[in-house]
Amino acid sequence: xDTILSLRGLTKTYTSGLTALDNVHLDIRKGEIFAxxxxxxxGKTTLIGAVCGLVRxxxxxxxxxxxxxxKDWRRARGRIGLVPQEIGTDMFDTxxxxxxxxxxxxxxxxxxxxxxxxxxxxxxxxxxxxxxxxLSGGMKRRVMIAKALSHDPDLxxxxxxxxxxxxxxRRDMWRQIDTLREQGVTIILTTHYIEEAEEMADRVGVxxxxxxxxxxxxxxxxxxxxxxxAHFTLAEPLTTLPTAIGEMPVTLENGGTWICYRGGDGSxxxxxxxxxxxxxxxxxxxxxxxxxxxxxxxxxIFVQLVKDGQGAGV
Length: 314
Description:
Elements: E1 3-13, E2 19-29, E3 33-37, H1 44-51, E4 59-64, E5 67-68, H2 73-77, E6 80-83, H3 95-105, H4 112-121, H5 137-149, E7 155-159, H6 167-182, E8 186-191, H7 194-200, E9 203-208, E10 211-217, H8 218-225, E11 228-234, E12 250-253, E13 258-263, H9 269-283, E14 288-295, H10 298-308
Parallel strand pairs: 3-8, 3-9, 6-7, 7-8
Antiparallel strand pairs: 1-2, 1-4, 4-5, 9-10, 11-13, 11-14, 12-13
Helix pairs in contact: 3-5
């Protein structure tokens, strides 16, 4: 798959000494939805700003569509759309005029039919003559997306696109984002909602303290870093584990009334070992009254990566 955006050694250190981006290497594939996850202050917005010309990198390079952003930024930037976290628009202007104005800002000829198409795709056509200030928060967010799409970008950044909107509207916007991908737009989104990455993204990246810790497909991440956890509740407490359990990753907890398994690798190994553990306990005459088992979610993996502060390979 063709690479549409390539970052090499991208670094941003502010005069205060804060390093917001630390030697970031990242390739984005044409036509994919890429989710960038990270806690507050991780460097997500700084990365977007560096690509979109809002932040000047201290070191490294950005190439978009094969163009060096440092030398040919005007041509490259014209093919990039940005929906920022903050809603920044003329609140007293109408929706239609604001979207048309954004198109003109990128040097595109006026095109009423295209503006209508964009507004209809975002369920904004009926609000085209309304002042932006009169809209709900979710509709204002849609206006920002419409402004970003007005000049037909090939690459679209969505910085926390569903922040502050209700669950129903969030899912509606997920469908709209998926439609954009079907139209050939490459999408990079930052989000605090792990379920957004699970729902939409082809690949996921985790960033913390300016460093990219991990980049991979969702299934590959689960396969490499997923874990199984199981709690066996015992009818009678134990003081020691039976020797037959061997080297299994198990511990006695809760006063000896739980046998806890934590292991596996996301490939099914953990589930098999839990089944083997249950069989061994039965053979040893150890009675258990309940089993609670869960598999790692993408959120579990994300939290652990940020906690550890180190990646598992990019």
